Amino acid sequence: MSKKSVPAERIRLVIDRPANTQGDYVLYWMIANRRTRSNYSLDRAIEWARLLGKPLVVFEALRAGYRWASDRIHAFVIEGMIENGKAFADSPVTWFPWLEPRPGEGKGLLKELARNACAVVSDDFPCFFLPQMIESAGRQLQVRFEVVDSNGMMPMRLTDRVFARAVDFRRYLQKEIGPWLEQRPVEQPLKNLKLPRLQGLPDRIAEKWPMTDLSGYQRSPEAFLATFPIDHSVPRVEHIRGGSSAARKQLARFVSDSMLGRYHEERNQPEQEVASGLSPWLHFGHLSIHDVFESVTGWKPWSTEKIASKATGSKEGWWGAAPEVEGFLDELITWRELGYNMCALEPRYDQYGSLPEWALATLDKHRRDRREWLYSLDEFTRGATHDPLWNAAQGQLVEEGRIHNYLRMLWGKKILEWTESPEQALEFMIELNNRYALDGRNPNSYSGIFWVLGRYDRPWGPERPIYGTIRYMTSDNTARKVRVKDYIRRYSKGESGEQGTLF
DNA sequence: ATCGGCTCGCGCAA
DNA sequence: TGCGCGAAGCCGAT
Prior knowledge:
- This protein is α/β, with parallel strands linked by helices.
- The chain has 22 helices and six strands.
- The longest helix has 23 residues, at 323-345.
- The radius of gyration is 23 Å and the shape is globular.
């Protein structure tokens, strides 16, 4: 093989068999890294196709029956698919887009595709229903089946250790990440790609599962989405478009004096638009972490030689980059990959019981404390609490599919305070976040939600009702610390009776 | 405005 | 074995 191969540490063998040289094609089942550039899974599939001298088929599907399927999620994924289709059209790769019309109709499709395949490659994503889907495919297919980790700068399964604190993970990264910064997936693997072309998919597949024509979406997104049995009450976010080019546009916007240059100082200010906003595209794999890393470290002159040699776990002076860059890299690498570490290695990552012992104990001790306010899931959903700042945060979530990082913490802390039990708080946070957030159903969402309940944190006195020694936050203090007046005004279209009179 | 205390557990120096 | 210190806080004292 001419190109540098995909690191073995990123490849997990689900079905260990030799490739079937009698197959008609190599199959890449694209489920998480939904992009045609800087994608180790695609590189791996191309490696196999080259080695075997076979065509490559990319099967990019979206199911209908999974939990929280909505116009919002469908639109974002479809917009990415349309772009992928254009990229593959100029290549010898056969791209097979498929949107499941009704839950269950896709049953058997992958198996049929795999019957003619030499080998199947897919994406190793550690969260939501994807791990179970891979496991299930592993029981059904009868062909070599590999999943590839293209999530982070570090392979997420390189260690067995689950890290309970960011500082420990940071220290681990400081020791181990060096070599992984020197390699990347192929930036444009389709460029000048030479592979045999497939004349067509087998008839039995084309007849039962015809490729989805996505042009209907381009003519009328709403009408197109209306044909799917998904949650139409969660509308698409029109100003955040799915797909790699929108992602790269946002990345270019962010890596600038006016955003990254102010990131360090103002990232906690909800009214200042200095956060990267990249998480939706990172979540759906429309954007590669390697592209982000290179853009950000290229903002000011920097090279890997500047990295400190001593692994102290400290945030300061690790990368040897500008403070703005250091601050962002700690989010992008330490915190992002910490979440992937948890999901990949802790099967109970979404279960209440996976919280640290001290947090479980203190929350349990206070579970019978009197609650001054209690709201139903419906009241939370509508942003109908007594607290205008909370309602605004919820309003932003429903309207834009995101909450400002800083207010997201307050949002969660108050849900803990205003529900009947910490388990119910967890359930409501997961429900609201996964339903409305474009970057929900992602390891980082679970980090944020579980942080509210003590994960990655430490006890803070004094012991209070409900919270115990879980870190406590109040809306009043938040409003004192950061400017929120315009934020509240901007997102208070909800139903709370108070906000109109307060501001 | 700034400071310490609240409280736990991990890595590392000793 | 002890020490320092940690994603973002809060509160009361100065």
